[in-house]
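fyi for ur records
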Amino acid sequence: MESTNQTASVTEFILLGLSAHPRLEKTFFVLILLMYLVILLGNGVLILVTILDSRLHKPMYFFLRNLSFLDIFYTASSVPLILDSFLTPRKTIPFSACAVQMFLSFAMGATECVPLGVMAFDRYMAICNPLRYPVVMSKAAYVPMATSSWEAGSAASMVQTSLAMRLPFCGDNVINHFTCEILAILKLACADISNDVISMGVTNVIFLGVPVLFIFVSYIFILTTILRIPSAEGKKKAFSTCSAHLTVVVIFYGTILFMYGKPKSKDPRWADKQDLADKLTSLFYGVVTPMFNPIIYSLRNKDVKATVRNLVSRKHFTQWCLEDRCPWSSVPLGCFHP
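which gave:
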């Protein structure tokens, strides 16, 4: 059969999910559902408080709000499909729907890397150059940064999705995954995927490598500045302004590194266990990490905690709705003067 006819015959894909482990499906359905509700609630509250309280109208919280939007959109594009796969063995998904889901997931994942790098620069300016902070991190600067990250992530996802969906598929339409993950899709193609691999590598360098390098360099300068602070209390105060962001960075990139960088066993006896481990790792990256982000930032930030406490109080919530709250300090939030 010619490749054109083979490609036209593939109108849907089959998602295996955890169908090979039926005993785990109900348990993971409940766990993922609960975590998804926490994601929606946690990120929703974080978005709400950073909008309502003018004290949180700062660059750091603006990018934090963007991360919350990204986490909500990212999980909305994948978690419902994951939950459905637990209830429906060998879940089928149309070719076009698979392309849309892959585009959204890739776009949100790529976009999220950029704000994490910019937030490291924000911490660098706040700690190392606090006097220049209001000028460098002005609204005229950080809004275009966020807009550009969304545009760049969407453009990269459009390229990768288009390249993957143009490939011919020769009958094998079973995706050994929960969602239409791009690497799982490429494995099904019956054509040369070298261009896709090269394009994927370039995209990874831009959206993963460059932000990591940016974060690394920024924290070297931050650490150098903190070590020059004479008092232990001053060092603790300075580091506390970065601890939440640094924790999120370690979880986010650590999971990606573990997921794609760990060695693959060539022993067929361990193939099934390795396959299960890969799927559970992808679940951690796609569900647990977005759940942790608002929790970490809320627990590590006294201003966010105070705003949440005020938000649940009717008296304060009514006051916020009626008053024009002014920033409580002229010093940028999170800045520390050595």
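The chain has 13 helices and three strands. thats all i got for now
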